[in-house]
Design goal:
Radius of gyration: 24 Å
Number of helices: 16
Distance between the termini: 61 Å
CATH topology of the largest domain: UDP-N-acetylmuramoyl-L-alanine:D-glutamate ligase
Oligomer: single chain
Largest sheet: 11 strands, mixed
Length: about 475
């Protein structure tokens, strides 16, 4: 594609060189540059792409997009200076890949908890309708039923456009995408046409980046002013009610909930250790749902997905078939199949609210002790650590406090932060820094009918220590420890 076609109608501060050149690819990683590529220099959290401009040129870049005043002496290189390279990357990559978000139904899901589960439930509903559906989110990207890994919950704009283009090329009709607050604040989802936006809930998280809940909320609100056809809102959530009042977008709104009056709602709820039953009520009528997922929070997730199906005018029988086909989501209240007289559950819960919801669910069917193994991520919101400790201590018979992606922080200091909350609630605990040793302790000391919850890692198959990502698959570790016991 010609550079002048990519940059047409875009506000550019300065151009040096020829814009009538062919661009064969776009990259923000200098190591991936090939001949004829455009290199967009992004000043990120830990790496400034402007430092790698020379590397990009050496690897074959013929165009450099930057936002800083850096002199490039090579006369054969076209240089474009813009106000914000993140926004430029979003715009140029969308055009380069043929604006793929306009060619499918892009559904954005945002909120603190439930995003992943909702995207998979949405896919199950459209699968029941025999419509090809993709996913972009925490557990990776699904294109044409092939799974690709993601670095972030919501990848950078260039990667998203590549994925959306691949979906279009394989005949995908729908894409359910998790949209993180970081992605919204950092313009990763600019130049994307969201047909629907879904709000789950908002509780304390990511305040290391957003500083305040107000900033966190406002970043989420951005998505609902972008949607082209409809907003789907959890009206039982305090911030959901705020979105209803404060959103400036004039598209139709569908509300869902259990406690407040909503358009999509659940009645006759029965919670058990095998799943949940409820009546799904909609403008199309009502239908009983036997969900093979646990907990009240799973009902909210199902309602959000059902609302999406209702918007696209799917039959209630199709929605029911899709919801009931989901027997589990990796790392989301996932029971490890064991030949033991106790239960081990893996869950991604890593916020006070997430832990509260999972533990409340366990309370409903626990017969023995509740043993909760958990930690908190390093270089993340420190304020939530004691709250997490207090939350777990109020439910658990034993708290096993351990490491969870300490990154550049001392894991023992993170544990001390958590213990403040546990001690406040007079909780029973043991601290074991090494997570594998902690898991082994839990399994070795388990008694009949105990429930062991391994919280925080969920689907993750790694742990992050400083700048290293080390393999750590909790499910495999549990099975390996039991084999050796």
């Amino acid at each position: 594609m010609k550079l002048k076609s990519l940059t047409k109608d875009y506000k550019i501060d300065m151009v040096k060189g020829n814009i009538d050149i062919e661009i064969t690819g776009i990259e923000q990683d200098s190591r991936k540059i090939k001949n004829g590529y455009m290199f967009v220099a992004i000043d990120g959290f830990t790496v400034d792409g402007h430092k790698y401009i020379n590397d990009a040129i050496e690897n074959g870049a013929n165009c450099i997009v930057l936002e800083k005043n850096i002199e490039i002496k090579d006369e054969d290189i076209t240089v474009i200076k813009v106000e914000d390279t993140q926004l430029a990357l979003a715009r140029f990559s969308s055009i380069f890949y043929g604006e793929p978000s306009q060619k499918l139904n892009l559904i954005g899901v945002t909120g603190t908890n439930g995003k992943t589960s909702i995207t998979y439930l949405i896919k199950a509903i459209f699968d029941a309708q025999k419509e090809k559906t993709g996913i972009i989110g925490t557990m990776g990207t699904i294109v044409d039923e092939k799974h690709l890994d993601n670095i972030n919950t919501t990848p950078d704009s260039l990667t998203i456009q590549k994925y959306l283009n691949a979906m279009v090329e394989t005949g995908t009709k729908y894409c359910a995408m998790e949209v993180s607050s970081h992605a919204l604040a950092l313009n990763r989802v600019e130049n994307m046409d969201f047909q629907l936006a879904i709000f789950t809930n908002l509780t304390e998280d990511h305040l290391d980046y957003h500083s305040t809940m107000e900033n966190y909320y406002k970043s989420k609100l951005i998505l609902f002013n972008k949607s082209k056809k409809c907003n789907i809102i959890n009206i039982d959530d305090f911030y959901g009610k705020r979105i209803l009042k404060e959103v400036e977008n004039t598209v139709p709104i569908i509300t869902y909930g259990i406690d407040e009056k909503a358009e999509i709602y659940a009645t006759d709820i029965v919670l058990s250790s095998k799943g949940v039953k409820f009546i799904l009520n909609t403008k199309k009528g009502s239908i009983p749902i036997n969900l093979n997922l646990l907990g009240k929070f799973s009902i909210y997730n199902a309602l959000a997905a059902a609302a999406c199906g209702i918007f696209y005018d799917l039959d209630l029988e199709i929605i029911k078939k899709g919801l009931e086909s989901v027997t589990g989501i990796k790392g989301r209240f996932e029971m490890i199949p064991l030949d033991e007289d106790y239960t081990v559950i893996i869950d991604f819960a890593h916020t006070p609210d997430g832990l509260e919801k999972v533990l409340t669910t366990i309370d409903q069917f626990a017969e023995g002790r509740k043993i909760v193994l958990f930690g908190a991520g390093g270089n993340r919101d420190k304020k939530k650590r004691p709250i997490m400790g207090e939350t777990v201590a109020k439910h658990a018979d034993l708290c096993i406090v351990t490491s969870d992606n300490p990154r550049y922080e001392d894991p023992d200091e993170i544990i001390e932060d958590i213990l403040v909350g546990i001690n406040k609630a007079n909780g029973n605990y043991i601290a074991i820094t090494d997570r594998r040793e902690a898991i082994e302790y839990a399994l070795t000391n388990a008694k009949p009918k105990d429930i062991i919850l391994l919280a925080g890692k969920g689907h993750e198959t790694y742990t992050i220590i400083k700048d290293k990502t080390i393999p750590f698959d909790e499910k495999e570790i549990v099975l390996d420890i039991l084999r050796n016991m």
